[in-house]
Write a structure and sequence with these properties.
By secondary structure, this protein is an all-alpha fold. It is 61% helix and 3% strand. The chain has two domains: 139 residues, no CATH class; 77 residues, no CATH class.
């Protein structure tokens, strides 16, 4: 086992501890954060054109035109995006915009430190560990860091593809989100993405059904 594969297994083992389960299309259940991590890897592959051996969706894509895989640091940072997020719920911070931003920033720093520690345990070089921590913590996002932008794109795409419909429905339909608010959030998400991210987001808008699809189409 390589240090990279070991680090990946440690990250996935942490995701597997998530007590919240999600039901997949085939009826099976999976810890939500492990499902989320797999979706992040899926969109990293789509974004970069790479075929990643541990991507459970890779068999559905052709390999003839595959590009070289992204750096190990970016692959691990993408996989660790929400590392053990459930341990610090949003409700532990004030129910305000400032509270949300503090929670999100704190989660990024915490996940980055955890991911870096797993990478170190796996035997990866200190420079790679530090890079993983910086990427997960969104350092360099506003300074033209190409890998940081890819990670941001991927997170936005997973939100639109995997989470947006539930968000619009109020997380199961209990409290429906105001449509104008949903449109604003989509437009803010769009503004965060680079060109390739927006290209893929347009594809999501073309296939998303129901109210979420209507809101996404209107926003874009």
């Amino acid at each position: 086992t390589t240090p990279f594969a070991h680090a990946l297994s440690l990250i996935d083992a942490a995701h597997a501890d998530d007590p919240t389960l999600t039901t997949l299309a085939d009826g099976t259940t999976l810890p939500y954060e492990l499902h989320y991590a797999r979706q992040m890897t899926r969109y990293l592959a789509l974004h970069t054109g790479a075929v990643l051996a541990y991507d459970c969706h890779a068999s559905t894509r052709a390999t003839e035109t595959a590009t070289a895989p992204p750096s190990e640091a970016l692959q691990l940072a993408v996989r660790a995006q929400h590392l053990r997020r459930w341990e610090v719920p949003r409700s532990s911070y004030p129910p305000t915009r400032a509270g949300y931003l503090s929670w999100r920033t704190g989660q990024g720093k915490r996940a980055g430190a955890l991911a870096s520690s797993y990478c170190a345990t796996a035997g990866l070089a200190p420079a790679i560990c530090a890079r993983v921590q910086a990427l997960v913590g969104k350092e360099g996002l506003r300074t033209g860091d190409a890998e940081a932008q890819i990670l941001e794109d991927v997170a936005c795409l997973v939100f639109l593809d995997d989470q947006f419909a539930g968000f619009v429905a109020g997380g199961g339909g209990a409290v429906e989100v105001d449509e104008e608010k949903a449109v604003r959030i989509v437009r803010k998400t769009w503004a965060k993405m680079g060109g390739r991210g927006r290209e893929l987001a347009g594809g999501i808008a073309g296939v998303l059904e129901g109210k979420a699809g209507e809101v996404l189409a209107r926003a874009l």
